[in-house]
């Protein structure tokens, strides 16, 4: 025979109240010699826990109808109010907050009044009409005590200084759990006009929570037991709760529609389900929705916006990516910084030896071109101040930075650009990162700035280390080249020895025909070897210039074009009679290299145009072709790297040497190139009449690539 529902609820009440009684008694006994751990509230807490254990036993055996039940409940409530007061005394606020004692006196008076009502209510006959009003007044007074107690607990924790909240966290949470449950319990009793026995059976549950939280607060290991959910777990949990709430709401609305939909209830339900499912599929997976949810949770649930452990691990994983599919270091640097702020794209601008930061890598930003550079004044400002530039604020304001420093125009015109983060290594600007605006726009605050600066310094160290490794590798390749030259010198020495020996033998055997025949063969072979050797080396020198003179550079241009006249491809488009400060042989070597490169990159019969014009105080040489062209990344990272060649058997130092020769002549070498369209090399040298107005530092070469169409 199955038991009735009342018996089942009585069993639940018995189990919960007995568990609460055992827990409260155990904690009271354990806390008795350790009462000081709860400060001035320790003694009151021990007595309150002991009395709570007795009250729980009384509730378990259903003594509410007798005198002991109301007396024990009133005593329990008064002792917990005393604990609250002692907690106020512990941090000295009892003396400064005058309303505390009157509130406690009022709540004590109401509790004693309730005790009288409870004892009188037990003696009223059920048939009397007075029983209902007495019950209503008693429940209202209990609600008043519960609300007053919750207000005290809120002020206890909310008004405490930050260093005191650590000790008050667990006791305040335990007391709030009991009184919040009682608030709902008495509210239901008042609205229903009767004692809710099913809910009353669960009153042992908040007592168990109270005992558990007090135990944590009094424990030495309370900090270790502190709940620290990770942001990922919090985000996923909240997402599941959001989805669950969404489903519950949909079920309730669908049920409501089924009541009011009439004959078309099923059709309305199906249409509603279809529309809401479509909306959920569009909204819930969106990047903007996830960004809003993450920002909201972090803002309200965590003390700091970032989980620094996770940020460090993510940064390490991104930078340390290896394998054939791993992106280049520059892209990884941009991605590591962009992921920090949730930016969907970014650019990396790296400082060159002779110019300001220029585009070196991009991540999910294909529209950026080689024109993405930072002005020297802007670069100097962010280096000196370690200043992170928030571009939205600049756009909304004056358009300039403190001190009158102007933001590069292309940054303000590109609506995706959101922030510029300097990458500084040992007080030196290694580069800068431009971050795209996140899907959920927001203003950067102090925590963003601090984290971005630290990550920027870390990434700058990676870039500096990589540059050092490349320099060491380049030095190693130079050593290898020097060893190769040693072998070449050895061959030249052997040829010189043969010539010397031949000359000595000629003095003794010149009249012999057989010797003359052998001598001719030896001379021919040695000459061929020497010519082949000099041809290989004629295009490569030390990069230095012995002497600068006033040179008729138009004659140099014509001589170079005449040297390639046999190809029929090299044309002199324009040639003004100009005189510049240069070295004839060095300039000729530079132009020969550029023309030869243009021929190598062009199809047979495709013209290579050479021109010389005056441009301000400079003589400008243009060598243009319509060949295969080069990408901005290749121009930036490989074109002028020694020993990097796309030609079979090439040394890979021609472009490097050409640039060094132009630098030595106090000029600059630029290159504009677009893939599949062609390349134009531009050499600028100071005109002889303007040479005295320029110094060596004014002609450092720079690189730029044309803007994308």
UniProtKB/TrEMBL annotation:
<keyword id="KW-0812">Transmembrane</keyword>
<feature type="transmembrane region" description="Helical">
    <location>
        <begin position="199"/>
        <end position="218"/>
    </location>
</feature>
<dbReference type="InterPro" id="IPR050980">
    <property type="entry name" value="2C_sensor_his_kinase"/>
</dbReference>
<feature type="transmembrane region" description="Helical">
    <location>
        <begin position="238"/>
        <end position="258"/>
    </location>
</feature>
<dbReference type="InterPro" id="IPR003018">
    <property type="entry name" value="GAF"/>
</dbReference>
<keyword id="KW-0808">Transferase</keyword>
<dbReference type="InterPro" id="IPR029016">
    <property type="entry name" value="GAF-like_dom_sf"/>
</dbReference>
<feature type="transmembrane region" description="Helical">
    <location>
        <begin position="134"/>
        <end position="158"/>
    </location>
</feature>
<dbReference type="InterPro" id="IPR036890">
    <property type="entry name" value="HATPase_C_sf"/>
</dbReference>
<dbReference type="Pfam" id="PF01590">
    <property type="entry name" value="GAF"/>
</dbReference>
<feature type="transmembrane region" description="Helical">
    <location>
        <begin position="170"/>
        <end position="193"/>
    </location>
</feature>
<keyword id="KW-0547">Nucleotide-binding</keyword>
<keyword id="KW-0418">Kinase</keyword>
<dbReference type="InterPro" id="IPR014265">
    <property type="entry name" value="XrtA/PrsK"/>
</dbReference>
<dbReference type="InterPro" id="IPR003594">
    <property type="entry name" value="HATPase_dom"/>
</dbReference>
<feature type="transmembrane region" description="Helical">
    <location>
        <begin position="264"/>
        <end position="284"/>
    </location>
</feature>
<feature type="transmembrane region" description="Helical">
    <location>
        <begin position="103"/>
        <end position="122"/>
    </location>
</feature>
<keyword id="KW-1133">Transmembrane helix</keyword>
<dbReference type="GO" id="GO:0004673">
    <property type="term" value="F:protein histidine kinase activity"/>
</dbReference>
<dbReference type="InterPro" id="IPR004358">
    <property type="entry name" value="Sig_transdc_His_kin-like_C"/>
</dbReference>
<protein>
    <recommendedName>
        <fullName>histidine kinase</fullName>
        <ecNumber>2.7.13.3</ecNumber>
    </recommendedName>
</protein>
<feature type="domain" description="Histidine kinase">
    <location>
        <begin position="487"/>
        <end position="689"/>
    </location>
</feature>
<dbReference type="Pfam" id="PF02518">
    <property type="entry name" value="HATPase_c"/>
</dbReference>
<keyword id="KW-0472">Membrane</keyword>
<dbReference type="InterPro" id="IPR005467">
    <property type="entry name" value="His_kinase_dom"/>
</dbReference>
<keyword id="KW-0067">ATP-binding</keyword>
<feature type="transmembrane region" description="Helical">
    <location>
        <begin position="12"/>
        <end position="31"/>
    </location>
</feature>
